[in-house]
Design goal:
The protein has helices at residues 12-22, 44-53, 85-91, 96-107, 113-122, 131-139, 146-155, 168-178, 206-220, 237-240, 253-258; strands at residues 2-6, 26-31, 34-38, 56-60, 71-74, 159-167, 182-191, 194-200, 227-231, 245-249, 261-263. By secondary structure, it is α/β, with parallel strands linked by helices.
Length: 276
Amino acid sequence: MHLIIQGGDIATRDLKHLAKLSGASRIERITPEAFRLCDAHASDDIAASCERARLDYAFVPETRRLADFRLLAMDMDSTLITIETVDELADMVGFKPEVAAITAQAMRGEIEYDESLERRVALLEGLDEGALDRVYDERLKLSPGAERLLATARRAGIRILLISGGFTRITERLQARLGLDHTHANTLEVDGGKLTGRLLGRTVNADAKRDELVRVRDASGIQRGQIIAIGDGANDLRFMAEAGVSVAYHAKPIVRSAATHALDYVGLDGVLNLFD
């Protein structure tokens, strides 16, 4: 196994300490923010040392290659993008604190996602549908490293699925901008140019996210071991469980504990360093 160390500021002393703890045979620089400790072994002290130094770590098989994967499935809010779109929409009607609190509960798995989304969307009743475009144009930012991750995945022949509990008005614009192969999200009901506070069709919850990944996987003849999945909240756990490699990105504890790897300090392009 290799031990991948990533962080915004990796001190030489910390890197040498981790090499000693893991019994690594050598240290290889991948990028200024990432190093590979070759032929490493697990140690109980590695996690604590990395936490103190604010570093991400991951043990990865030395034979894992990005080119061996065929599908990258990822969440949108607080993963591909830095915001929660429903929270920003709620801000436009003066309910952001209330909606953000419900969002946080749902992402921690403390309340059912369907209930949380129904309550949040109901507070948007009467909002002009143009608010969705305002959120995209004025508030939406891609997570650091997102474009590099997606571009590299495409060059490797990997299809990209954006699977979100957010809204189609946002995912469709991201699809056109980023060249995504598939998107799946909730559709807000609109009447007379105003949001009704309801959704159309099946709610894109944890089960729906999993089902969409499975649908794309099977239609494309892709195996479970050829899938990379990235998410941050409890409603991502079921689709992440269908992947050969799952990454908890700046995620809630319940997600970090279930994922193959966790990234807390680096951007989305840190995912690339988990593969040769």
